[in-house]
Amino acid sequence: MTDTIKSFVSSQNNNPGIRHTPLKKLGLIGGISWHSTVEYYSYLNQLVNNYFNNNTNPPLILLNLDQCYMHSLQRSGNWDSIVKMLIDACDKLQQAGASSVIFCANTPHKVYDEVQRHSTIPILHIAHAIGMSIKKRGLCKVGLIGTIFTMEESFIKEILKDDYNITVIVPEKEENRKRLHTIIQNELSHGIINPETKKYILDQLMLLEKRGAEGIILGCTEFPLIIKQNDLEIPIFNTTLMHAQMGADFILGLLKY
């Protein structure tokens, strides 16, 4: 059990080991990438284990998507097909008994609104998990790295600004944003951890800190595979863990947002 996971255990549990209500079933749309999906699965099980102080495991249903195909759709700008994939995944998970769904990645939230409009099952938005965590730390300005879509579009930044009054900054130079995107797709999503790549990412994070970032959002669920809290002096926000905590709170009936 890591200290990071310990810090996320809900304080609302007054009777460890006692289950007062049935656990809610959560659907996971994974495979984007499978490496970070493994982290989601691990965190969700550990968080629920920790809550009950035993080996109670959460009811999870995983639907694994084809990341290669999704990346090809992203490159061609065919987001309509991605929307259809995600709607179909939500429907299948709901039919399998899930009460709610999470996308196991940041980038699919670009089309969250459209998918949610066409799905009757609630989808837990990663930006709210991020916003709640940053708000608890009392920070007002944070840096964000992720895919080119996450950094350059508003689907994460707008929610953080409008709902949590958090200002988000990203790397200034387009070439740096593009390289971070390439690192995600060509290295991290394949499980490749390169020391030179880590140095490059840390250099970008230090530039964000110099521009006033009080913390850093690892806005791609692959970045926590290479960047850890002990790499920086300012706090980092692991979106995989924060989103998993949101999922665990839903399972336990504790989610309020």
Short synopsis of the structure:
With 257 residues, the protein is of the alpha/beta class. The chain has 11 helices and 7 strands. A 4-stranded parallel sheet has the order 5-4-6-7, with helices on both faces. Strands 2-1-3 form a 3-stranded parallel sheet, sandwiched between helices.
Question: How would you characterize the overall build of this protein?
Answer:
The structure is a single chain. This protein is of the alpha/beta class and 257 residues long. It folds into 2 domains: 3-126 and 241-252, Rossmann fold, CATH 3.40.50; 127-238, Rossmann fold, CATH 3.40.50. The protein has 11 helices and 7 strands. A 4-stranded parallel β-sheet has the order 5-4-6-7, sandwiched between helices. Strands 2-1-3 form a 3-stranded parallel β-sheet, with helices on both faces. Strand 1, helix 2 (34-52) and strand 2 (60-64) form a beta-alpha-beta unit. It is globular. It starts with a helix and ends in a 5-residue tail after the last helix. The model is unreliable at 1-15 (pLDDT under 50).
